[in-house]
Amino acid sequence: MKVAIIAANGGLFDAYKVFNIATAAAATDAEVGIFFTFEGLNLIHKQAYKQLPLPEGKEHFQEGFQKANVPSIEELVSMAQEMGVKLIACQMTMDVMSLEKEHFVEGIEVGGAASFLNFAKDANVTLSF
Fold it and tell me: Which CATH architecture has domain 2-128?
């Protein structure tokens, strides 16, 4: 099975959705690729992913995540990479935002929409968050 995910939003809830689905799919031996674009780049940005915002009024979830021993986004990114999930940062968005590959976690790929579409063209599941 092949799973293609587009991450276009940069909040904490978005990160949990993206990485929970990605790691669950990878755990079933699916081939998984995530394309990070616009605010979604925050999910793999070395600084930003440590302090992703919660939606306004949802701050109480932070305590719930801790009580439930939910891994941090940093941990989920590492888990995803260890499980072979491809992390692809959008080149165009990086150019627009003056970001370089060094701004992101180790091991990511940089590519355009065409390279992601090449990966996703025969995906069994395609999701967008």
Answer: 3-Layer(aba) Sandwich (3.40)
